Every structure is written in C-alpha cells, then in structure tokens.
Amino acid sequence: MTTSLVDVASSDVTLRGFLHGLPGVDRVGADQRAAALATRSIKTTAKAQAIDLAISMVDLTTLEGSDTVGKVRAMCAKAIHPDPTDTSVPRVAAVCVYPDMVAHAVRALAGTGVKVASVATAFPSGRSSLAVKVADTTMAVEAGADEIDMVIDRGAFLSGDYTKVYDEIVAIKAACATAHLKVILETGELATYDNVRRASWLAMIAGADFIKTSTGKVAPAATLPVTLIMLEAVRDFRLRTGRMVGVKPAGGIRTTKDAVKNLVLVKETAGDDWLSPEWFRLGASSLLNDLLMQRQKLTTGRYAGPDYFTLD
Fold this sequence. Notes:
By secondary structure, the protein is an alpha/beta fold. The protein has one domain (23-300): TIM Barrel, CATH 3.20.20.70. 49% of the residues lie in helices and 9% in strands. Helix 4 (44-57) packs antiparallel against helix 13 (285-300). The longest helix has 18 residues, at 224-241. The protein is globular. Keywords: Lyase, Schiff base.
C-alpha cells in the first residue's frame, strides 16, 4: 500500500480498492486476543490510578427526548465534581448533549476545562440530507460545542458507496471549524470485523479526530474485539501518516471492570500515548457511579449506600 492517502480519496475506484486491500481481520484471533487481555489483573495501587484515569476519560451523556435544561445543568455539576464530598476525584472529560442543549451546557461548564460535545448529523440514524447534517453541526458549533459526534450513513457504507460516506465526513469536518470531530461507526450494524476496520480507515482518511464505536442505541455496542480492531487501526494509521486519532468505545461499558479491561486494551494495542482523555474516551454515563463506588471502597474499605451518588 504505497499510494498516498490523499490519492486514495481522489476517486471512488481507488478508495474502494484501498479499503478492500486492507488486511482481513482474523475473527477468531481478535476474539481470543481481546479475551486474553480481559483476564489481566492489576494491583491495588494501579487499580486506584486506573479508576481515576477512567473517570477523567468519561463523556457524561444525556441523549433523551425528555432532556430538560435542569437535567443538563445537574449533569454538568456532576461532571465538574463527580463526588462533591471528595475534591480529589478528577472531573470527567466532556458532557455530551443534543445540539439544542449545547448553549446551556457551555454556560454551566464555563472555565472548568470540561468539554462540551454534541451529537449532530441526524443522530442516531444519520438518515437525512447532507444539508440538514451540516446545519445541525453548524448550530452546535455556533452554540459553543468543543466536539461534534457524527454518525456515518451505514446504508451507504454497507452498499459500498464509500465516496458518499467520505464526502459527508469531509463536509461535517469543515463545518466543525475548530471543534474536534468524533465519527460514530455504529459497529453493531456493520456486521463484520472487516467492515469495522474499513470504516475506521475511511473515517480517518476523511479527517476524523476520533473514531467511536456506537451511538449506544444499537446492540451490540462497544465489545472488546471491536475496540481492539479500532485501536489497531489508529495505531497503524499513525505509523503510516504520523497523525494520531482518538478512540471512543460507547455503549455497554457499565462497570469498573469493563473500564479497566478497556484501559489494558489501549496500553497493549495502541500504546501509552493513547492513555489520556485527549486520545481515549469512554462513552458510558452509567459507568461513572460504579467507578466512584469502587474508588470509595479502595479509600475507605467500604462501599457507599445505593443512594449516595446521584442517578444519571
């Protein structure tokens, strides 16, 4: 694969050839590798560090039709101080909301360092025109969003119309201006590991700052083998281009054990450079309370009561 990635994107035939020329994924090997890494145990001191790192990587999210300004403000308060009784708990990486809630989140998080992310591009289906998707993105960016989470057109991808998917990502990236772009692949609908690898490379070639597994609305979501394949993709993309791209597994990550498994996967697959909120995120709001409970257990020797932390 000696063709430059600029040339790859210049024609549908070349792009298709490049993506289908990527090495196929050994499904059994990927499953076994992910399962083996999931059995790694870590010592107490390392676990405490891993919990704080995982908290700092969380994108705290509310994406419901029933979202209110009050709910968004409450979530922002939790993002800044996940445990108000313990100031040593790190803040989370970002708060993710619908575009119409961005301005409220921006005001609530001003000066805290917590990013505001927004799902755009007809989330979660992606079934709309490019003009609507660009307008959705522009609205969120103008309201102050630091990050945009877009969904690809899975129908176009699965029918082999890679150029349409590429062109949409390029257009949304341009609409992002200085905001970072996370491209959601919705891996639960891609059917094969080969498709996950192709979609990862397609998104990165088009300019994604992050590649993200899922919307959280489709199962299966962030499985370890899928995250492994995406981590391999960003590692290999960096070797080829010199550009780092982040990874965000989202959906189905609910426990501290799940989070630690993902951190081990990052270290052993992509390397230490990705072990920061700048390059790895966890899209799992329900995870935060379990991380806080486990953190308190390490600190005090006992678990908090079920109503100690706020519900998300």
